[in-house]
Specification:
Number of strands: 17
Oligomer: single chain
Largest sheet: 7 strands, parallel
Shape: globular
Strand content: 15-25%
């Protein structure tokens, strides 16, 4: 296939690009190389048709779509999305940018889209109350967190909730600007598919880590932040009590899932969780990295950020059952590789 890869110069994008090449696809990359992500620029691999440009520019996108069979759309402003001043950038870069791309795809009659979404669309996901069963957790209160009570409460009785794997049909509850923008991308893509008869695979990535992660930026994942601290012989500072549960998924497994969806999902609109299926706590990740690097023992600080999600872990069985994908990189192996890499 001739594939347009937006955001192909980014962390995940470079791994997806390598996977596409290994699978024999012809790839064109569109990337704005925005300075807050690409501080050192990017040199495309040999044989790649690279188009520097902004996804929000209709003429640029229309030109990039010429002769394209399918689009993998990764280009986005990422990060925590908790600063209100960033809202216009999220809305412009992610929502308006996706709308421009979809309109151009409709004009070009390009029918197949694989969209990088995120687990953040679920908010706190689902919890399980001993009395009320599966419920959407109520927001965590600053007063409770100041007292060391970090678990989200049941919205009915206030009891602490047990964690539960989140499937694609769970209620959607974006709790910051980034999450809202990712969900808006999904809705725009669904609208486009309904009007054009196109196909959309919405890949809800969980916590991605691996070689090439950005360092010491507001957009860096917690793994990159911990790794940078350990290499400077500083103890990683783990927020809350370290018990936040996440599904850490290696970037090569993300790339494999994304390319597989591009190849195999060719009709309708479908969301797919992309997670390892083996949830770990943030404290366990910090400890694994410290052991792999031989650095100081992590410090659990009790600090917190309002708006952070306590637990979000994926049920990725749909992706496994329908597309035949399986993660290949085990958690300990991935942490050891990250410790040895330049990330």
């Amino acid at each position: 296939m001739h594939v347009l890869l937006t955001g192909g110069a980014g962390f995940i994008g470079q791994h997806v690009l390598r996977r596409l090449q290994a699978r024999g696809h012809q790839v064109r990359v569109l990337d704005s190389l925005r300075a807050d992500v690409h501080k050192e620029g990017w040199t495309p691999p040999e044989g790649i048709d690279f188009r520097p440009g902004d996804i929000r520019a209709p003429a640029t996108v229309e030109s990039a779509l010429a002769g394209i069979d399918a689009v993998i759309h990764l280009a986005a402003k990422v990060g925590l999305g908790v600063d209100s001043d960033d809202m216009p950038d999220y809305a412009s870069s992610n929502d308006a940018g996706t709308a421009v791309l979809l309109a151009a795809m409709a004009r070009a009659k390009t029918k197949h889209l694989t969209l990088a979404s995120s687990m953040v669309v679920y908010g706190e996901g689902l919890g399980r109350c001993p009395e009320h069963g599966a419920v959407m957790p109520a927001p965590r209160l600053e007063s409770a967190m100041n007292g060391g009570n970090f678990e989200p409460p049941c919205p009915c009785c206030g009891a602490a909730l047990a964690t539960s794997l989140v499937a694609e049909g769970a209620p959607l509850d974006p709790r910051n600007a980034y999450a809202t923008s990712k969900l808006a991308q999904e809705y725009y893509a669904s609208n486009w598919a309904r009007v054009t008869g196109g196909s959309v695979a919405m890949m809800r990535y969980h916590n991605v880590y691996g070689p090439g992660m950005p360092k010491n930026t507001p957009y860096a994942g917690v793994a990159a932040i911990f790794t940078s601290a350990l290499r400077a012989n500083r103890a990683p500072r783990v927020f809350e009590d370290g018990g936040q549960r996440r599904d850490f998924i290696h970037v090569r497994d993300i790339a494999a899932a994304t390319v597989l969806a591009c190849e195999k999902h060719v009709s309708g609109t479908r969301a797919f969780n992309v997670g390892s299926g083996s949830p770990k706590t943030v404290g366990e990740m910090a400890t694994a990295l410290a052991e792999a690097i031989g650095g100081p023992t992590p410090i659990v600080t009790g600090e917190f950020r309002l708006g952070d999600v306590r637990h979000i872990t994926a049920d990725s069985s749909r992706l496994r059952d329908e597309l035949g994908w399986r993660p290949e990189v085990a958690f300990r192996d991935g942490m050891s590789e990250l410790a040895r890499s330049d990330a």
